[in-house]
Write the structure tokens for this entry.
Amino acid sequence: MAHEHVKHIDPYTPQSGTMVPLGFQKFLRTCVLWQLIRFIAINIKMTILILKSHH
Amino acid sequence: MARVVIMGGGVAGHTAASFAKKWLGNEHEVVVVTPNSQWNWIPSNIWVGVGQMKKEDVVFPLAPVYEKAGIDYRQAKAVSIHPEGKEGSDQPYITIEYTGQGKQGQSEELGYDYLINATGPKLNFDATPGLGDGNGQLGAHTVSVCTADHAVHASHELKAVIEKLKKGEKQVILIGMGHGMCTCQGAAFEYIFNIEHELRQAGVRDKAEIIFITNESFLGDFGMGGMHIKMGGYVASSKIFAESLYAERDIEWILGAHVTRVEEGKVTYKTLDGDTDEQEFDFAMLIPPFAGVGFKAYDKAGGEITDKLFAPNGFMKVDAKYDAGAYENWKASDWPRTLQNPDYKNIFAAGIAFAPPHTISKPMQAPDGTPITPTPPRTGMPSAMMGKAVAASICDMIKEGATEPTHTASMAEMGAACVASAGKGLLSGTAAAMTVFPIVPDFETYPGTGRDIHGTTGEIGLAAHWVKHILHHLFIWKAKLRPGWTLIPE
């Protein structure tokens, strides 16, 4: 099944020189429960970034 | 009573004007000069460009907002700056030419005590033959998402391409940078993923060849020399992060390219290797290079001093180190902090309008000397922070008698957040959320990567997509100066 995610990559092309997500990683990207957690995490990261950036 | 004149009503100018008026109250005057009648939340033009939003969703009229806030709004373009006044008067002023409000074509002198240049860029389409129409506007061969109207046009063209794909015709879609010295790679990056998503949704992805063409020497440079992201127990280059996104979606890329000519269905480009090649297309969105808007400046006697106020690219000189020399000598401290003009202390520049000391990415050129280097991005978040800092300094000068700027907004001391979507649906779309701190790498403070690895992150998923949606509504709410607008960060 994992092969499904990489079958479009041709050898010795620039695309073959990087990493490509497999099924579980793709599932996590759209898993609402996990993404709710990530939503909180992203907001915290961005808030810290904003606070550090104002002088 | 002091008068603060702000040239430009985009992210930097609008932010500066809004805060200046709030802090100065009715004792002082705040004037905004902008040729546009509408404010545009430019990041969402991407969604307009694929037909997922209407123009009305990303623009609103400025006049009622400024009227309510007590800001004097002139729908006009600034033409010249006279920082020493003129014979018989020491009052500095700018000349403006109205583009609306029933005064089209009329000129006027507008005196100021403090001037903020926040005009944004001139979209320099004509820098690449065929990309422009020869009169400074977008040409007929490609589309753009730089303005809301451009994006509407792009969505119509894309719709036609999708219809052809549905009929079984193969189509080549080319997205990227239309010149070797472009910035705003992020916009092209986001647009190509939205197009890919739309084709997938339409069930025609397999019929289309999608190609990214960029002046970056590696994917993920973004005009910032790339960045290193903490993920999976490693610190990895944004090259890996970006390449992965393209490879996953079967999008090809052309690197280190300077587009030299655009013709109907074909671009010619030169690469860092010195090769010249051509790429055919059925649909192309190529970002133009940016330049300053082309002001003239004059001294008291009427002699031209444009070179004194502006760099050769038309951007305004501020407190940056413009003689930093070769890349090896560059430091974070080269970047301006107060954004004050060194010769005229009552003039400031914010957002895209200030002249950077140099690029952030390492300068590169083709063997014949053609420079092919991304220029520095100055996106919404840093532009707004600059606008606010400049307004705060000016308010302290007016109200507290400060003799020097009291606030700073250096791109080497601030971070930026970027959310690049793919799709628009709340459950079907995904997005890449990236944070970077600082924007300009500081190799003295952060040896090795130049950035705080805890503050420089990237991840892909629905959560980032939700953030993108929220930011769209929050920033339009803020720009409309609706209740609580000051609580929404820049």
